[in-house]
Amino acid sequence: MDAENTLKTPVLVLGATSLIGRHLMARLKDEGLDPVAFSRRPPPGDACWIGGDLKDPDLAERLPVTATVFSLSPIWLLPPALPALKARGMARLIAFSSTSRFTKTTSPDAAERAVAAALTEAEQAVEAWCAANGVAWTILRPTLIYDESHDANVSRIARLVRRFHFMPLSGAGEGLRQPVHAEDLAAGALAAAHAPAAADKAYNLVGGETLTYRVMVDRVFEGLGKTPRSLPMPTWLFGLLMRLAKPFYPGATTAMGTRMGQDLTFDSTDAARDFGWSPRKFHPRFAAP
User: Fold this and answer.
1) Which residues form the domain of 123?
2) Taking all residues of the chain, what is their mean pLDDT, rounded to a whole number?
């Protein structure tokens, strides 16, 4: 199948209001394409938008005719919607998953293990269904996604730094990270859709450099115009701090401390080869509050 030709028809973006979605919609418009957004709330700007949910019983009737589908919604929502998308002409699918599929399988947090299992099951279901129904698929698994002041990862650190002027670390924070910008992921998704070599493959997408958790935190301080002030502490003390902080920061878990010392790294050599993946290095810049 010619991947270039599928992009000449209107393109459907599922989850267009997601972190990556707003960047992807802008890039599609810049290419002169005609993206249609499908999401529960309208995206910013004047995008063509269809309100809805992938769980809607009349999904096939509400979707536009399209050949290329970008799925930015949680991938576990995608398998039940595939027949409706195929009925409306889908021939090319680019879907986002996460490297959490691998990094959270042995997490001490049951909810995180459940997420890893859901990602794995959904990826397998998407691959099997597409192979059986003649749809060329690409699955993209980002590492730690950031988008200054919008994400729930790096920007959470920035919020803590702004409030307390220091950042607690579990141990020395020596675990390796590869933060990747949402705008780069949008560019990568579009490049993969254009590249015939990317069909029927899954890729781990990492940022432009590998650095320790502590260095990543230091860069956040610098992006806020502040002098880095990390506070290493024993793992047990960090765990206690997270339990105390949970009422104020629902995302705080003791598993966060465990991962600070773990290397969560992947290789994107195949993505660079197949569709020119070349993301930026990690130097976030945060606007004044």
Assistant:
1) 3-143+181-205+266-275
2) 91
